[in-house]
Amino acid sequence: MSSLKRLFGAPKKAVTQETAAEALQTAEEQLNKKQIFLEKKINEEIAKAKKFGLKNKRAALECLRKKALYEKQLELNDGALMKLQAQRNALDSALMNKNILDTMKTVNSAMRGIHKDMDVDKVHDLMDDVNEQQDIANEIAAAISMPTGSDLVDDDELLRELEELAEEDVAEKLLDVHNVDELPSIPVGEPTRSKPKASKKAEEASELANLEMWSA
């Protein structure tokens, strides 16, 4: 048995979403570090090539060759990083779809449990019975609120009451017309003005004049 395991290898454990996410994160961190390293080396080789210039063409060209190699590695590194990011997006989408499906299964199971003891025909029968009982309740309410024989009013009695009201209305109108005929007449001509009373001093002066005339 052990020889078979060595030959075919031990059975692999199922990879969980957490394990896959951790593996992706580790790989992305490594590629990001490598990207920083390669960019640094490229800048260093460019600086060396500028320093050597035409004075030392061989050294300058060697620096440019190294720069080209670093740029090629950087290009491959960027491609690998993009693939990992695409896998991360795919993993997130798969996880979201799984959560949605699990939710739908849970809801479906709950609905199945709710509808387990429910039957469409029984529901229709129940609704028919509810409507029938409602109709009976309405009929009972109408019967209770219907006036009895003692509560009914004779039409002849109502007609006499209406005639009395009409007679009272006519009498009130005649009384109003009679009151209008007895209104006071409107005065004709200009109103007379009352003479103003003499002042107290004028009266005293008149009395003194009369006394002097009698004493003379």
TrEMBL record:
Keyword terms: Endosome
Annotated segments matching region Disordered: 183-216
GO cellular component: cytoplasmic side of plasma membrane; ESCRT III complex; multivesicular body
Cellular compartment(s): Endosome
Major location (coarse): other
One Pfam family here: Snf7
GO biological process, alphabetically ordered: late endosome to vacuole transport via multivesicular body sorting pathway; vesicle budding from membrane
Similarity annotation: Belongs to the SNF7 family.
Protein name: Charged multivesicular body protein 4b
